[in-house]
Design goal:
The chain is of the alpha+beta class and about 200 residues long. The protein contains four helices and eleven strands, in the order βαααβββββββββαβ. The strands form three sheets. A five-stranded antiparallel beta sheet has the order 2-3-10-5-8, covered by helices on one side. The protein has a three-stranded antiparallel beta sheet with strand order 1-11-4, with no helix packed on it. Strand 6 and strand 7 form a beta hairpin. The two termini are about 15 Å apart. Bound molecules: fe (ii) ion (FE2). The site of fe (ii) ion has 4 residues, from strand 4.
């Protein structure tokens, strides 16, 4: 997930990922030991789910602190949830981001360009998982992910929406199997769904 990239929603099940307002800039701040461990996990290879599961193991063992962001960035932005790009691997194989959500902020319903691993660093993130059906999307799971929760997934079957349902700022790390600094967002498609 990246900041809502303002794709125009058109009739139909899905819409193309928007280009948004330009490519994100790498701000740095990902601990070197964590970057190195993720790099080893990615280079060990295998299919997307295998890579994501291995990266999830890295995050569980080397769990990041919200303090890797400045106090200003941790404050969030009333304009929308924020995605801070900490690292983009030079060979394009992965990116590390930290997202900051004020209460009530949420992503669109979306799927992804590649595998993704998330780790909740502060607050609780509420996630709905969807599956396509004959008459549109339906919710097949609802998860409340507290601090310490690490999730790994890979397309297909990765349609979801994430919201900060809490009363404080939520913070989470997202590692993606693509280069966000070049493709702009991890989102492949956004979907029409009530509550958007
Ligand atoms: Fe996502």
């Amino acid at each position: 997930m990246s900041p809502a990239t303002a794709s125009a929603v058109v009739p139909g099940a899905a819409v193309a990922r928007g280009a948004g307002g330009g490519l994100p800039t790498v701000i740095g701040g990902c601990p070197a030991f964590l970057t190195a461990s993720v790099r080893r996990a990615v280079r060990a290879g295998g299919n997307w789910q295998a890579v994501a599961d291995r990266v999830a193991g890295v995050l569980r063992n080397q769990f990041p602190s919200p303090a890797i962001l400045t106090r200003e960035r941790l404050a969030g932005d009333p304009a929308g949830y924020q995605t801070h790009l900490l690292h983009a691997e030079p060979d394009g194989s992965f990116s590390v981001t930290v997202m900051v959500w004020l209460p009530g902020q949420q992503t669109p319903v979306h799927d992804h360009l590649a595998w993704c691993v998330t780790a909740v660093m502060q607050g609780t993130e509420y996630e709905e998982i969807f599956a396509p059906g004959a008459d549109g999307l339906r919710v097949i799971a609802r998860n409340c992910n507290p601090v310490g929760a690490v999730s790994a997934f890979a397309p297909p079957g990765d349609i979801h929406r994430v919201r900060n349902n809490g009363t404080g700022v939520a913070v989470s790390m997202h590692v993606y199997g693509t280069d966000i600094s070049r493709v702009g967002s991890s989102i492949r498609r956004e979907y029409r769904y009530p509550g958007q």
